């Protein structure tokens, strides 16, 4: 699995994200949520043809 993350911000904004603060916590929460959603979509695609009941 390959995951790419694109962050569009200025150097000053990036410094704000990397120095511990409330904005860093907000960024971490958003990044985590995006990762969970992306992995969930990948898992759905991976197992979309799999039916554990055999009733396909």
Describe, in plain words, how this protein is organized in 3D.
This protein has 56 residues and is mainly alpha-helical. It has helices spanning 11-18, 22-46.
Task: Identify the notable features of this structure and list them briefly.
56 residues, mainly alpha, 2 helices
How would the blueprint of this fold be written?
Blueprint: H1 11-18, H2 22-46
Number of E strands: 0
Helix content: 55-70%
Number of helices: 2
The average pLDDT value, as a whole number, equals: 77
Strand fraction: under 5%
Low-pLDDT stretches are: none
Shape: elongated
Radius of gyration: 17 Å
Terminal residue distance: 27 Å
SSE order, one letter for each helix or strand: HH
The secondary-structure class comes to: mainly alpha
Largest β-sheet summary? none
What's this, in brief?
This protein has 56 residues and is mostly helical. It is 59% helix and 0% strand.
